[in-house]
Amino acid sequence: MEKATGSPLVGGSYPQKNAEILSSQYGINLFLAGLLLTFAWAVHAVGISKSHLLSYLITLMLIQLLWMLWYLGRSCTQRRLIRDKDTHAGARWLKCGITLFAVITLILDSFKIGYYIDFSNCLSPTEGIFPVTHAVHTILQVYFLWCHAKDIIQSFKTLERFGVIHSVFTNLLLWTNGVLTESKHQLNEHKERLITLGFGNITIVLDDHAPQCNCTTTTLCSIFSQGIYYLYPFNIEYHILASTMLYVLWKNIGRKVEHHQQHKTPFKFHGITVGMIFGLAVLTSTIAIVVVYLIQIGRSKIKSELALTMFYLHAIFVLALMCTAGIVALLIYRLEDRSLDNSKNPARKLDAELLVGTAAGSWLLSWGSILAIICAQAHPKYTWYNLPYSILVIIEKYIQNLFIIESIHREQEKANDDIKTLRIVTISRGSTLSLTPAYKEIYNGRGAPESREVPCLLRGSVVCRTESHGGAKAETSPEKSSITHSASDVSFYSGNSVANNKRRILKNIAAFLFLCNLSLWIPPAFGCRPEYDNGLEEIVFGFEPWIIVVNLAMPFSIFYRMHSAASLFEVNCKT
Fold first, then answer.
1. Which of 62, 347, 394, 444 pairs with 86 at a CA distance of 20 to 30 A?
2. Where, if anywhere, are coiled coils annotated (predicted)?
């Protein structure tokens, strides 16, 4: 099917290309229909209710469940067959991450079931069926991705394309539904925070689609409603990860891969002490900032302003450090003369696209904040810290993306480069050494199969002989040989020392950026989002539009930090 994989059958590639195009168009139309249905429910379109939207989503999930069961059953009957696997797809960190978010999503579904039971008198039956279906869908999908995310499907390719792309856009629609529902939940709380900060002139008709009846158990209803609010961000991340892994599976259908052994490079803490210390310091301080922020924000105007100022100053300092570290790493790369690996690699290509694509979410929010600061008529003091913060967010992601993408495209050093770091032990007086040809090549830094030179050291005044091409023998005095080897040793070790120092610096930078990205993932993931609480953006763009924009962009920003951390972990192992 793929032209780059060799010489595919001409007759077989054309229908498969058509199947790829048809399946992608099917998925897009599926998504657009669901998107308009979601929008119609949000704006109370005539004749459209939440039960219609949930019925559509339930139908999509049931179709995906049937396809996954069919695929799993067919895989069991053919388990003895040797199947092609994409070793770069379905990384372990990705599977662990999606499992964690899936567990929290199951808790969310249980809360929704409890919420429905308490309000069952006035809620549609679809609101009870949806979380049950979603829980079953989540369990089977995670199992499917753990077992088959690396598959390269070579049979029933047309049918599988439609099944996989259906799964991709089903998860995207579930993500969209989660984003909209979360934004509806947040409207009331964030308006109260903005009123505390003095933005009382924001006018909006709040609409959270609350049930029109009383709860049977008030305490449980409060727990369920608040729990749903806090668990939605994890549900959103789960569906993003699932759609990403399924998209890779879809791209791999029918692909031919070269069978070669993938070398796994273990992670080692040796040599990255400095980067780990600074990174852990950033991580610890970030956790403390988040705790204080969540406690102080909304308490009073002074406490809210102090919380925002504290967050911005800390973020500015961390982002400045990350920019500096990234620039140093790029300068080291400019000083090195190592070629780039330009071979086709779908997983590496997707990694680069995800870095740039998900960074656009943060860039959108940052440019919105910059525009709001420029256009706003009144500027409280704390809002000015938002300007350097937003600018640094743009620059830091730009630099970090360059560093990660270049790192994953750089060719790994040959095995000889690592062997060259072996120490040549000086032979004490009275011993004899005869270097084997392999170690002679390591010592001289080049292969010389045609040469018969074997350095030998005997007691004190032994003459070393080298057989020339003409058969004559040249004699070299011990003093001259000693000077020659001493000079080559100095040159060899100095070159290796510089290379090792560069490698050590790069590993420390990668470790530091890895922990910094984990640190910057924590605030938005756990509700510390100054984009909501700053106030200026809501004044300029409007309250509900800005909340929806933030809820659309924030999941990408959170995913970017997670994906960057995983990529930097790989860079650290590879360096």
1. 62
2. none
